[in-house]
Design a protein that fits this description.
Length: 248
């Protein structure tokens, strides 16, 4: 890399399958102004589970080597785009790999790998203090064959136990044009621990839990307007764009 270009480089876009330890160590040691990283994948979901898993392991191993060498990249903004596979351990390690991280964006990705056996999702960002989190939720919009008709959102502080005092609670329902956004819910009937267990076990709801040390803004987006009627009911084929100002 040209020394002048190297010195001034602040943003970089990389294919996830091309990320390797040697290159990351070079960036950490020599490209000192790098603040914004974007990772994308050349592989679609049709390229096969094995290839996606292989690239995911390579991706993790590369950053683990960087961590072992105690090279800390001062990345403030991180974007995952175009079919990059996201797994729970990767999210939990972001705070270790990028301690200065303030903005995370998940665009055009599949959230399926985060879904547990009870059809719920945990996005655990550990000790990160996030100013802005963007999540494309298209991959978890209910399809025709799905029993799910709502998303229950929990925003919780890192390491805190669930209660109405430690969690912000929202709900988004489908089927009613007047309820296209996530709505804040403060009631005791919804916020107590027994009600939470029922939501977690329900086949009608997907519970999305987001944990971090703090989050200022949470931006949800999806666009299913051009999707096939064979995949989505009419009330689900819509554009959804909402920013929640949390200061949490």
């Amino acid at each position: 890399i040209d020394p002048l270009f190297q010195h001034n480089l602040q943003s970089l876009t990389l294919s996830a399958k091309e990320v390797c330890p040697r290159f990351l160590v070079y960036l950490a040691e020599h490209v000192v102004r790098l603040k914004h990283l974007t990772f994308f994948s050349d592989n679609t979901m049709s390229d096969g589970h094995f290839n996606s898993m292989f690239h995911h392991r390579s991706f993790n191993n590369a950053f683990n080597v960087l961590n072992e060498r105690q090279n800390r990249m001062q990345i403030m903004s991180l974007k995952f785009d175009k079919h990059v596979r996201i797994f729970p351990p990767l999210l939990q390690r972001l705070a270790t790999w990028f301690p200065a991280l303030q903005t995370i964006s998940f665009q055009k990705i599949q959230l399926d790998d985060l879904i547990n056996q009870d059809n719920n999702i945990l996005m655990d960002f550990s000790s990160l203090n996030l100013r802005y989190l963007y999540v494309d939720i298209k991959s978890i919009i209910p399809r025709r064959e799905s029993l799910t008709n709502k998303i229950d959102l929990e925003i919780m502080r890192n390491h805190s136990a669930f209660s109405r005092q430690t969690a912000l609670l929202y709900q988004k329902k489908w089927g009613n044009r007047n309820e296209i956004n996530f709505a804040r819910i403060n009631s005791y009937q919804y916020g107590n621990i027994i009600a939470r267990y029922r939501r977690l076990a329900s086949q009608r709801a997907l519970v999305l839990t987001i944990r971090a040390n703090s989050i200022n803004y949470l931006h949800f987006y999806s666009d299913t307007t051009n999707e096939s009627a064979a995949l989505y009911h009419a009330q689900y084929r819509q554009k959804f764009d909402q920013i929640l100002h949390l200061n949490f």
